[in-house]
Design a protein that fits this description.
mainly alpha; two-stranded antiparallel ribbon; 5% strand; elongated
């Protein structure tokens, strides 16, 4: 998988004969060292300082690269096994007890009740119609007739409610209720929008313009100032004069009664 790089060259100054490790020149033999017991003493090795100054020491080996001709481990190609028959399964034979019922409902006993189990958190679910059949197509005519009748009953009920609301609204209109008039206007506007959208949009536009004009006119209308007083000698002064005179006479009578009243005996 790897080969020496053909373009790699040994760096200049490489020390081929210099060892990478040398004995420590500063190391000293211990005083208690015994050659007979401990063997010949050898100084510990340290990195060669000459190698640190040079590009490297020892035998130079070219760096390796991926072999472009390497194709991996050879294995023979695989082909479909002509003897393979697939996973084994037991052979099937005809079922002697198999039969097709021609009229399955004929052998069923009379059905007196149908039980339905429903798991739900919503109250008020009621089942009032059940249909038994061999396929879904057998129940479609029954379902169509049932739901058509339900839709007709619902439409009649909604129409009855609408007439009842309209009757109450007419009674309130006859009594002169402003709220009822507004409600009648909104209902008429909704009906017009459903029947004639263009006229309904025009009516809404006219209503909005009228409201804007009234608001702007009300803002521009001059409000009376707080320091404005009625002119002296006017109609208000003439109307207030008799009331002031009557108040003065009543005050004078009260003072005279206090003077004439004798003191209480102790």
């Amino acid at each position: 998988r790897k080969i020496p790089a053909p373009a790699a060259t040994k760096p200049a100054g490489w020390l081929d004969d210099a060892p990478t490790m040398i004995p420590d020149p500063e190391a000293a033999r211990p005083e208690d060292w015994d050659d007979d017991e401990d063997g010949a003493w050898e100084a510990p090795e340290v990195p060669n300082p000459a190698c640190a100054a040079a590009p490297g020491c020892g035998a130079w080996v070219a760096p390796e690269i991926d072999n472009p001709a390497y194709k991996g481990k050879w294995t023979p190609p695989k082909i479909d096994n002509p003897a393979y028959k697939g996973p084994w399964a037991p052979r099937k034979i005809k079922n002697a007890a198999y039969f097709v019922p021609e009229n399955p409902a004929k052998s069923l006993p009379a059905i007196g009740a149908v039980a339905v189990e429903v798991w739900t958190t919503n109250k008020g679910i009621v089942y009032d119609n059940f249909a038994l059949g061999a396929t879904a197509d057998d129940g479609k005519p029954l379902a169509t007739a049932f739901y058509d009748r339900k839709a007709e009953e619902f439409a009649k009920e909604e129409e009855k409610k609408a007439k009842k609301k309209l009757k109450k609204l007419e009674q309130r209109l006859a009594e002169g209720s402003i709220f009822a008039k507004g409600q009648k206007f909104i209902l008429d506007l909704i009906y017009t929008a459903e029947q004639q959208p263009a006229e309904a949009a025009m009516s809404v536009g006219v209503l909005l313009v009228t409201i804007i004009v009234l608001v702007v006119f009300r803002k521009k209308k001059k409000t009376p100032k707080a320091d404005d007083k009625p002119a002296e000698g006017g109609a208000d002064a003439d109307a207030a004069a008799p009331a002031a005179a009557a108040a003065e006479d009543e005050d004078q009578d009260s003072k005279e009664e206090k003077r004439e009243k004798p003191p209480k005996a102790e």
